[in-house]
Amino acid sequence: MTSSKTIVLRSSDGATFEVDEAVALHSLMIKHRIETGGADSTTIDVPEVTGNTLSKVIEYCKKHVEAPNSDDLKSFDTDFVKVDQAVLCHLAKASYYMNIKGLLDLSSKTIADMFKGKTVEQIRETFHIKNDFTPEEEEELRKENSWNLFV
Amino acid sequence: MDRLPVEVIGNILSHLRAARDVVIASTTCKKWREACDKHLHMLSFNSDDWPVFRDLTTSRLEILITQTIFQTKGLQGLSILMDDVDEFSASAVIAWLMYTRETLRCLFYNVRTAPNVNILDICARQKLELLVLAHNSITGVDPNYQRFVFLKSLSLSYVNISSLDLNLLLTACPKIEFLGLISPEIAINDAQVTVELTSQTLKKVYIEAISLDKFTLEADNLEKLHLKDCALELFELSGNGSLKHFKMDDVSILHLDIIDPIDDLEIIDVSNFTIIWSKFYQIISKSSKLRRLRLWNVVFDDEVDFVDLESIALCFPELNYLALSYELRDELKEGVLSYSLQGSSPMVNVTALDVGWTVLDEHFADWVACLLERCLNLKKLVIHGVVSESKTHVECHMLASFTSSIVQLLRKYIHVDVQFVYE
Which of B86, B224, B317, B345 is exposed most, by the fewest CB atoms within 10 A? Predict the structure, then answer.
């Protein structure tokens, strides 16, 4: 027996998504908002997440709430994260703010796998990270760290 | 990436786990450094992660591990699995554990420490939920002082421990759900080597490579028991009838005593086991809810013993997976085969069937045919065969003959998905 109650989620760019309450509750942040926000809270703002990302997050929650024991859940998850780096980062950020542990771990693990065996320069390049250490700070890092002999 | 909150970066680094990769990532920029220092929850030093580990001296490794651990704050998981290291010095290990113990939830450690470190002493009364320990000794367990209130999973491999201490350890873990024991060195108390374990909360037990005169397991909430490569003279299992999954692989038990209503058993998986079928059957026949039954490479103690298909069909109506390997002794083959195939009660719920031979003979295909006749709703059939490297002419002929028979047979079962696995 599924409750027909739906919740509307509004992204940072104003896009709205109507979802079943059960699906929305997969996000502990939303669960908390509903429980503390009173009975009339049917529209919930999610300002940290854009429409595109929110739509993907909802897709994840839907699958995990509606078919949590299905055999293809693993392959769903594997395919779900076959997206480009930027989308992955948005998913990680969104799942952190919306407190969806499964999605946070899934996206974190996928990003982590991209790091394996890379050098510092390779990481900076792949992920467009700006080196904000001063040369003195870098020198100190090098000194205090025994790993640096092999970095 | 640069707009990710530092906690998320910490989470990513925690999934990266391998210490060297984590440290390298942390030197990319300040935010990543901060994530490593304050938001890293899992760190591992495994010899498989980085080939250079093998080239470092033990003291170099100790320094490396100490420096890296001491840079973190709030570590929840620590894994030090280094197979090539002979031993770490006690002072280093004590330092790592004392630094992390207040927040540590899971610990994996498999290196000998010299002199021996009482890891239980250091981690007791803290937050540990999972402990995997190998190649260390555990002595003088005191449940009053050493309580592991949060420990759910305990795995001990190649650990020196007395049977008394093992049981005391269980009582020190009021919430323990999983116990894994691999090749323990049980100190001999009397002339007999006995292990008696009691726990109201244990749900799963895995025991490998143990040889005992007597093993008693009293676990009222046990759901899964898996024994592998064990030699037990007497094995006593008592509980509340909660056992669902019973697996034995390469086990020899002289006296099996199950003082437990095992009506709820759902899975029985026995391989490489010597049994007296009638006795074993007596034990399992009450498990009417059985869904999966596997009897593989089962050696019969009694020459006239055999697996009686009719009893299986009648006793286990809910069976949906059956795996039987074909073992008959030459002298009695014809007689026993027809006896074991007597009756025709169908096994309507069996959808997957695994059969296999170690020595192929001319009756194997007929035996498979009888099984197929009973399994009216079969969807999948896997035929396992042992094929010797150098085949004699007789063996080749037998294999060819079998192939023809099975092809003929399977023509009647075209809706069944068939697979062959030869080794």
Answer: B86
Mark B219-257 as b/e (b = at least 16 C-beta within 10 Å). Answer: beebbbbbbbbbebbbbbbebeebbbbbbbbebbbeebe
d(CA B287, CA A40): 52
CA B280-B284-B286 angle, to 5 degrees, is 140
Subunit contact A147:B3, Cβ cutoff 8 A = no
Q: Which residues, including other chains, have CB under 8 Å from residue B115's CB and lie 6 or more apart? A: B90
**Tell me: the pLDDT tens digits for B308-336?**
788 888 889 999 999 998 876 554 455 55
Measured between its terminal Cα atoms, the distance across chain B in Å is 49
Asked whether the beta carbons of residue B21 and residue A115 sit closer than 8 angstroms, the reply is yes
pTM reported for the whole predicted model: 0.87
Q: Whole-angstrom Cα distance, residue B183 to residue B181?
A: 7
Alpha carbon of residue A119 to chain centroid: 25
- Main-chain dihedrals φ then ψ at residue B216, nearest 5 degrees: -115, 130
**Rounded to the nearest 5 degrees, what angle is found at the Cα of A143, between the Cα atoms of A137 and A149?**
125
ipTM of the complex: 0.89
Q: Are strands B224-228 and B245-259 parallel, antiparallel or unpaired?
A: parallel
Low-confidence ranges of chain B (pLDDT < 50): 331-332
Interface test with B, best of A107, A119, A123, A137 (most B CBs within 10 A): A123
